[in-house]
Amino acid sequence: MRSLLSALLAAHLMSLASCVYHTSSDSKVIEKVRNTEIIRQPAFQYLQQNVLEGREPVISVIGSSVTAGSGVTGKTHTWIHLLSERLKAAEGLEKLIYLNHGFPGYSTKQMLAQGKVDVLREENPSIIIFETCLINDFVQNISIEESKTNIQSLVLNMQKMAPKARIIITSPNPRKENLTKNKTGSSYEDYVIETGKFIKLHGWEYVDIYSEFTKQIKASKTSMDKVMYDFVHPNDLGYAIWAKILEQYFLSDNKKEAAQE
After folding, report:
1. How deeply is 54 buried, as exposed, middle or buried, from its count of CB atoms within 10 A (0-12, 13-18, 19+)?
2. Which tens digit of pLDDT belongs to each residue from 99-108?
């Protein structure tokens, strides 16, 4: 096992070597290159690398009720539990653990005001998965612009609380009614699309659960009623779809996608 992990670490260090010889005035470029290389590395390999460096493989997840798992028949059907079990099959990740900080009903504004990401300081996670709480921003009529600002502040706080962690941002799942507009004149889909663009513009790592979930439902000719517990929360089958999307992302080589952006 250690030989495989050693090879992964060596390859990662070589990919960063080109950054060493830049001058100090190029620090922003260096940081962008480093972040790009991390994103291109499959997330499960990043976890394996952390094990090799002597860190526990820990994933901290933070978000709203759909991160907590509202709508499931039991904890083992939440998307993070399902993802964790699948990742444990990878070499070196048998002892992978996750810490779930899902706050039902919380918007980005509430998450920020109550310092909900502060818990990450003590956890020292290898990876943070941040679900953007847009379901509640939409319901609480928080403007899309404020959602963007709050997401940015939350990400910056996460970087302060856990500077060694790789942060993966995800959208929430689709609702049964995605196009109905709230008091700000925006639909839930508008929130997902516009914040997704904002996140990508900043070069942050992003997984669009909303679009992929919708795509898989259509491809399988499955109705939303079969994958949803209510208008907002998935059921066991819906969370299994969510987990599968993230599993595919964690195991994929993202170089092609990064090059296209």
Report:
1. exposed
2. 999 999 999 9
